[in-house]
């Protein structure tokens, strides 16, 4: 297992060495409080319809956003939200797709609640010094398009649908395995299940580390969390279908119900 997903204790020991990014809405960041020194980059600010694929914001927009938040390409980043990490994971995946070294990208396990239970928070304003952030869409990265998904189906790769059961039953890509992203999370701790439980669940569903794993949902938000967890567990061959079911249906892809 790697340290892609890190604990509140891990972050507390390294606060001066990392850039902490809070992706909640501004009113939560200011009104509820945040990790001291964190900068606020709300989820809606790095989602768009004019980027290179799916809901990516575009390289220039993302560079301006993170640079304005004081984040540079060489920073080690820890992101968090208060929704089990799904929105924060989307920031990390977006950064990776625009060329940020994935070894420098971390998700706070247990989200803001985990930090708040153990460590002090602040409502003080954060005014980071602007930084230079260079973003370029990585065409050799984990993002794949619809043709690669069709090839994955034909080649026997493991296709994973990370949506809820009712969504899967209404229609999914042929051959897809259902794994609701929330099944990887412990509702009580708000963090990931213990590693042994995660591996048992994945093995039970037929999602193995030696497989090529292609992930999708509806708009590539939920797969961001599953992708991050599988990276944390050391799965080496992961593909991220950014267009997800939205594009698949628009392009006339077959769906299986039930």
Question: In short, what is this structure?
Answer:
The protein is built from ten helices and ten strands. By secondary structure, it is α/β, with parallel strands linked by helices.
Word description of this protein:
This protein has 258 residues and is an alpha/beta fold. The protein has two domains: 5-118, Oxidized Rhodanese, domain 1 (3-Layer(aba) Sandwich); 143-250, Rhodanese-like domain (Oxidized Rhodanese, domain 1, 3-Layer(aba) Sandwich), CATH 3.40.250. It has ten helices and ten strands. Helix 4 (86-97) crosses helix 9 (222-232). The mean pLDDT is 95.
Number of domains: 2
Determine Rg (CA atoms, Å). Answer: 18 Å
Spatial order of the strands forming the largest sheet: 1-5-4-2-3
Q: So how many helices?
A: 10
> What is the H/E string?
EHEHEHEHEHEHEHEHEHEH
Q: What would the principal axes of the Cα set say about the shape?
A: globular
Alpha-carbon distance between the two ends: 34 Å
Residue share in β-strands:
5-15%
Give a short account of the largest sheet: 5 strands, parallel
CATH superfamily of the largest domain: Rhodanese-like domain
Average pLDDT for all residues:
95
CATH class of the largest domain: Alpha Beta
Low-confidence stretches: none
CATH architecture of the largest domain: 3-Layer(aba) Sandwich
Helix content: 25-40%
